[in-house]
Amino acid sequence: MRFAIITGVSKGLGEAAAKIFMESGIHVVGVSRSNNETLEKYASEHDVTFQHVSCDLGDPRKTEDAFTQISRDILSRKPSTVYLINNAAVLEPIGKSMAIKGSDLAYHVQVNTVAPMIITNLFLQHATELDIPLISTTITSGAAERPMYGWSAYCSTKASINMYTQTAALEQDQLKTQNKVIAFSPGVMDTNMQEKIRSTSKNEFADVEKFKEYKEKNMLKSPDTVAGVLVDILTDETGIINGKIYSVKDYL
């Protein structure tokens, strides 16, 4: 028995990954503020289970409480492997760094960096205690590797996730656990986030015309295609390189 826990499961990459996991006979726990009834039906069709948990990842205490319970529930069933996909993220606030409100910045950092760290830390702790292999990934971005005008928050949080991934993986290697911690950069996909980017003014985001061009020239990848690459990487358990920042562009 194997389980996948996916945040941001209601749409986009999270929804696509959930379906592929279920097609592979893997049970899924999906975490998002709104439920996706399509996934419940999909699970029934593939003889697996889908459980939805509502959680606002912008609240650190609620995040810790929810995932403490999820990890205990899942790991108590003694699965052969657990896959954790920290997919949920926010793009806003977009704009000049000097114009960003402190409260908006704090929420952004909580969702994009603190929440994935809390969640991964909890699962690493409990999986190690029970000697159950955990394969964890957080969705990162090419924005982690270069500055972009108007994206000071997003670039910074994705860069911090990359360093967290490498550090946590280093610890797991030195502790000689079975756990793997990686990050995955999905490139530009045809999602709601891309719609938000294209609706941004050039005054707030200097590269907005480039992202409009991605859509006009049909350069956006399908979430289903990208999710297929991600799931293939995660389920190739012997081939995973701990701490690696994987990129979809190396596969497509």
From TrEMBL:
SUPFAM superfamilies the UniProt entry points to: NAD(P)-binding Rossmann-fold domains (SSF51735)
Keywords, in A-Z order: Cytoplasm, NADP, Oxidoreductase
Major location category of this protein: cytoplasm
A Pfam family this chain is assigned to: adh_short
Record-linked InterPro entries: Biopterin_syn/organic_redct, NAD(P)-bd_dom_sf, Sc_DH/Rdtase_CS, SDR_fam
GO molecular function: oxidoreductase activity
Enzyme Commission number, as recorded: 1.1.1.320
UniProt entry tagged with the keyword NADP: yes
Annotated localization: Cytoplasm
Family, similarity comment: Belongs to the short-chain dehydrogenases/reductases (SDR) family.
Protein name: (S)-benzoin forming benzil reductase
Taxonomic source organism: Virgibacillus kekensis
